[in-house]
Amino acid sequence: MRRGGGVHPAWSTCMGIEEHLGYNILTTSLEKLVDWGRKSSLWPATFGLACCAIEMICTAANRWDIARFGMEAFRASPRQADVIIIAGTVTKKMMPAIERIYEQMTEPKWVIAMGACACSGGIFDSYAVVQGIDTYLPVDVYVPGCPPRPEGLLYGILKLHEKILQDPFLTKKYRERLALRQEAV
Amino acid sequence: MNKAAELLQEKFPEEVVEVTEFRGETTITIKPERIVDICLALRDTPQTYFRYLSMIAGMDYLPQSPRFGVVYNLYSHRNHNRVTLKALLPNDANPVIDSVVPVWTTANWHEREAYDLVGIRFRGHPDLRRILMPGDWVGHPLRKDYPLRGK
Q1: pLDDT in tens, A60-90
Q2: What is the ipTM, given to two decimal places?
Q3: Which of A45, A127, A169, B29 could form a disulfide with B18 if both were Cys (CB 3.0 to 4.6 A apart)?
């Protein structure tokens, strides 16, 4: 348990049961506990496509230090990664490889579209470039910019954390959505 | 006059269409039929000695006819000079020219690029496949009548 500081918001669901147990045990819902654990140690896939990747690498290095959010472990294997940051221009020739990497990631998994190209094709309104990665993958967070600064990416990551904290993964609705996504694949 | 142009006018007077000079750069327009012989002569004659092919470009001059052309940029390390060869292809529907891979091995990928993006066929090329676009791509995207956003 956390020493010294207050109780983390995720742990503070009050059901009155604490009064009977004293201050030895904290109660919470399983969902909140798991979501908190998931958002606190997201492992991104080591994956960059263009100039946005340089900003992403910068975000992981000492000045911006993505390790503050439990994300320092960039995994070279998609099977160990939770989140894929689509950092850069996606060409149609690259798309089969990206789809394959995404499919190899284990559930639960999230997608961040980083930069104008990944969000919408950017300035490359051309025959060779995918006009937004969301035509192929379910994107959770869009980070605009050309390229976005590390602060921008970190803001997007914090938004993803908020989203994960509210993830009702035990509900029927979530299971239905998951089934839909797997059908689409 | 440029030594390469002199050589070609002496050896292949029927093939040379035009010699132009612009800011010290010589461009020789030739007929496409004997491209391999012309390239061999430019490579092996000591006065020219163009041992290095720096680029092959496929051209689409739509709406002109002849519509397609191939441009060869040659460089000589010994003489430290350049020359540009330009061949216009007579057939607009099916542009074909002989491959210069036997002359310069580096032509292999350059010709594959011209085939991939402009759709010019190189007769005698050892492996004429697409090099940049996916293998199952339909069409040649750098043709002038190809839509910008693709088909």
Answers
A1: 999 999 989 888 888 889 999 999 999 999 9
A2: 0.73
A3: B29
